[in-house]
């Protein structure tokens, strides 16, 4: 091999070697890429994209990471809870809601969702506590009254409490989504 050929081969080898990264270099490059892409907005965006695609696991991971990175809970938490519920991950939804409520205890909407999640899992005591706490924060929340009424009627067999809650629901939302059922569930006076 002549000197020119050897030089060309060496330059080619060195060029190829420059393109190949050691495992440590690759890890550093991956971390740098992840940090560039881990802005709150990008995490939220990716979470919503995965949710729209039906990939609940990845959506949950990105939305949780977004919350951990400082995303606005008011924007992200409803999407996160919805993703968990749609994928039947009620326990995960409960954990996310409880974690949020540790720092935002007056969030009546999240308390309402938490109460309905507990009710869906047959945890009547926990459901009642959360629904009542939601009503303490927002007494005019018609759907919380409805949820308490259904809980009292269907789970606790307490028709008197159910009647009281159905009546309050009807007072607040006389033409609401559950008005027909609430009217049909009212106790009637017996002569």
List keywords for this structure.
191 residues; elongated; 78% helix; mainly alpha
The total count of helices amounts to 11
Largest sheet: none
Q: Whole-Å distance between the termini?
A: 115 Å
What helical percentage do the residues reach? over 70%
Number of DSSP E strands = 0
> Tell me, what's the shape?
elongated
Return the average pLDDT rounded to an integer.
88
Gyration radius, rounded: 27 Å
So what's the oligomer here? single chain
Beta-strand share of residues: under 5%
Helix-strand makeup class: mainly alpha
Order of helices and strands: HHHHHHHHHHH
Low-confidence stretches: 13-17
Helix and strand arrangement:
Blueprint (H helix, E strand, L loop, with lengths): L2 H17 L3 H15 L2 H14 L2 H13 L4 H14 L3 H14 L4 H13 L3 H14 L4 H14 L3 H14 L6 H7 L6
Helix pairs in contact: 3-4, 3-5, 4-5, 5-6, 6-7, 7-8, 7-9, 8-9, 9-10, 10-11
Mind explaining what this structure looks like?
It is a single chain. The protein is elongated. It has 191 residues and is mainly alpha-helical. It has helices at 3-19, 23-37, 40-53, 56-68, 73-86, 90-103, 108-120, 124-137, 142-155, 159-172, 179-185. It is built from 11 helices and no strands.
Outline of the structure:
With 191 residues, this protein is mainly alpha-helical.
